[in-house]
Each structure stands twice: as structure tokens, then as C-alpha cells.
Model the fold of this input.
Amino acid sequence: MKRNWLTLAALATFSLFVFLTLSGCAMFKETAVTETPVPAEDSEKRVLTEEEKTRLLREKLISEAQVFEATHIYFDFDKYNLKPEARAMLDKMGSWLLANRNFDVFIEGHCDERGTAEYNLALGERRAKAAMDYLVNLGVESNRLSMVSYGEERPIDPRSNEEAWAKNRRGQFNIFPRTW
Done:
């Protein structure tokens, strides 16, 4: 009989254990898992309006033009012939201008401080004209190009040494839209 009580006690303990375990599981609620929405595929992206497309195109073209404006061509002392590096840059600019016919170019000719003001104005004009003629020979319409000589009046580097003079003997470009 003692054995029956032990078996019954073990069975009751086991049953109590199973009951408490199962009832405890019921106390925990399942939480709903919400997924973060998957980004839309390219085909489902919002379509840009014509105004937005035009604005983005303008911004792209202006940033491309600014690259040319930031690049100057340089000349040797008392010279106005184009160096190979200048020709390479003008080739790129010419290709871009031929592809973007709604932009015009204003070419500036600059000199270092050596020489008279009159001589430097004439030399700056010859430098600007050399760049202008090169672009015209590439096919850019001459009515899209204009030039001016500033001679020695607008130095990039105001010092009086060979390094500064080399920087100041330059052709500089301003590119701007004709119309939008």
C-alpha cells in the first residue's frame, strides 16, 4: 500500500507540474510581429514631374559647367600659343559645348604684372582669342563665345615671384546658360 501511495504521490506531483507548466504558457500573450515595409521596386517609384526633371537637368548641367570654370589654361611668359594641356582641356570643353548648345562662354585673358599695362592688355586679348579660335575650330558657334582682356589687373596670386606669375598668365572661362 505504501507503494501505491508513493506512485499516487509521484503521479499527482507530475500532473501538478504539467498543469502548472501548461497553464503558465497560456499567460503569455503572443505579440504580433509587424514587418517594416519593403522599399518599393524601381518600377514602383514615384514618377518625377516635368518640372522636377527640368530642375535636375539644370543642376547637372550647371555643375558640369562649373568644372570648366574652375579649370584655367596657362601660358608661358610673353606667349599666347596654347600648350598641349590647354588644348586637351579645350577639347573637353568644346565637346561639352557642342552637346549643350544652350550655354555660352565668356573667355578672359590674363597676364602677370611684368610689362606695361597696354602691352599686357594686348597680350591678354591674344590669349583669350587663341582659346576662342580653338573652340570655333572645334565647331562651337562664334556667336556663343565672347572675350575680354584684363591684362595684369586681376591676378589670382598677388605675389611678385615666378610661381605667382605662372598662375596669373592664364585663360579663364565663365560659362552661363543662354536660355532655359
